[in-house]
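Shapes recur. Our protein:

. . .
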Amino acid sequence: MAKINGIINNSTVDPNKILPMRYLWARQHYKDGVANNWTPEEISMQKDVEQWKSPHVLSDTERRLILWNLGFFATAESLTANNLVLTVYRHVTNPECRQYLLRQAYEEAVHTDTFIYCCDSLGLNPDEIFNMYNTVPSIKAKDDFVVDLTKSILDPSFSTVGPENIRRFLHDLIGFYVIMEGIFFYAGFAMMLALKRQNKMIGIGEQFEYIMRDESLHLAFGCDLINTIKDENPEVWTPEFKDELVELIRKSVILEKTYAFDACPQGMLGINAQQFCDYVEYIADRRLERIDLPKQYGKNNPFPWMSQSTDLTKEKNFFETRVTEYQTAGSLDWDK
């Protein structure tokens, strides 16, 4: 039976009264987000501008990789923020969860500002970059897939009352937290950080590093929210629904692999497009396990160095760049 005083459909909750808290994990995610506070303007783009303007530093493949990733992320962050504000915040009335959702919405705004900063710094055509979600088929396919997952609950009359509606809401949460933020972002993260490891476009690479840390927290919160809803409403977590979710995630992996080959068709120094695809499958298995669904791929991580970008205890030299130490450790180990 559904839990009538749970995280959704709780008629006894006062959304204006945050104490005492029931879901301490939501509070911890909020504190972790605050500890990782950053803004794009803190990161120098001088070397990036020099490399971008030089005819010899970046190959055509690397320039394509950069443009494709700026084009995807530039609008994906807004798409995610709109879903948070228009659907998730409306239906999750628990006050400590709402506090985190407000923090996440702010971070999505920072991420959007990052791509404005990149376009301005490199002198890119903003109409071209911010319209790639319409003009590049592999980007459009990913965005259309996620938007299609949430058409029904964007209906103002939608309610989370009843098992079928709770399943629809979980469907939405998995679409945005697990698929969009947990799978569709990660080939791009790997590409941009691989470029950074070659000492190319360091400023953009560092900004992607911070975005990935934020997204790791978003994903952790989203999975805790999903798991809490299904634990409090066990009747909705049927074998048929689980099969449906696994199939959705498998389709999303195909779309992300298609994007990986499109954004980096020739590969780059020491890395080829197939490795990015293997990384997507490795990541997808971890997402599936996190919400108690069976692994599908069994791939090893081809990029173990990616864990350095979510190392919560790492500090950088103050005179080289800003300090990146987190105040808490261990909460993202599953996401590296």
